[in-house]
Amino acid sequence: MKRLLILALLVAVAGTVLYLGERYKAGGHVGPEGALNAAAELQREVSRVPARITRLSDQQEMLAGDRMAQQYSTTYSEADAPMQEYVSEVGRRVAAHARRKFTYKFHYIPESYLVNAFALPGGHIFIGKGLIDLMDSEDEMASVLGHEVEHVEHYHCNERASIEAAARHLPLGGLIVLPIELFQAGYNKEQELEADRDGTQLAVMAGYSPQGAIRMFQAFEKLEHQYVTKDETPDQEIPRVAIESITGYFRSHPLSAERERQIKLLIVAQKWPEPQEKPLKVSANQVAEEK
Ligand SMILES: [Zn+2]
């Protein structure tokens, strides 16, 4: 009887993997909306896959991440260099207390539509101009970068890569290169809240105020209210593509109010210090205006 049950489970798992494989083989989504929707849908589906996940080794994860990061090329201008340096500086400070021994690399994407940040396997962290535009303190940036570092630390990126490789029949032993879109949207709610907790902890250990995370969530709450609950009304000041990116982000992440509540409880429970927030040293808009 037990054997039959195991067999049934295996058949079910194989069926799910095959289904995912067929479904995502096509790929080729256009624009952030399609990409985010596909990734959010994938996230919902993979969180139901009951399989035991075989993780990539650190070495495999690093090679795969490096290759994917290379392929995600953006056009930088001279004017973007100060922000790129600044993002790297804050990122390095936050990642100083990371547990996995990767060399974390931080990339600035100078695109207003990218109201998002994401991590690739192996420790490549990307942050979009659209998200930095919502910030006014370095502490907010530290909380976002810390959150992304934790998606690597907790093997969320690694496991997604592994599940996707299985769905696409790519052998784990080979070099796994997957579409970036798969890593651009969120993970399941528990994983997101875990990244919030430990990401804020990393920022606090680096000397930042946890209020940075709180204020970031409050900025998201405002956007949720503006663009998600109000029937996604287009605003003249924000291009359509940015709105699509924002609403896609909220479809794939837990509600900001819940994320804020968790961090507020932790500030009290952990007795986290709350130093004065530091204003952003480089503004993404200043950089854009100088062009
Ligand atoms: Zn996340």
Description:
The chain has 291 residues and is mainly α. The protein has one domain (2-290). The chain is 60% helix and 5% strand. The protein has helices at 2-25, 31-46, 58-71, 81-95, 129-132, 138-153, 156-167, 181-184, 189-205, 211-229, 240-252, 256-269, 284-290; strands at 105-109, 117-120, 124-128. A three-stranded mixed sheet has the order 1-3-2. A hairpin with a 3-residue loop joins β2 and β3. α6 (138-153) crosses α9 (189-205). The chain starts with a helix and ends with a helix. It binds zinc ion. The site of zinc ion has 6 residues, from α6 and α9. Zinc ion is lined by residues 147, 151, 186-187, 192, 195.
Describe this protein with a few key phrases.
mainly alpha, 60% helix, binds zinc ion, 291 residues, three-stranded mixed β-sheet
Count of individual domains: 1
For the record, give the distance between the C-alpha atoms at the N and C termini, rounded to a whole number.
70 Å
Biggest β-sheet, characterized?
3 strands, mixed
Indicate the mean pLDDT: 81
Number of strands: 3
Q: Helical content, roughly?
A: 55-70%
- Our estimate of the beta-strand percent is under 5%
Overall geometry comes to: globular
Helix-strand topology string: HHHHEEEHHHHHHHHH
Contiguous helical run count: 13
- Low-pLDDT segments: 4-30, 287-291
Strand arrangement in the largest pleated sheet: 1-3-2
**Helical/strand content category:** mainly alpha
Bound molecules: zinc ion
C-alpha-based Rg, rounded: 19 Å
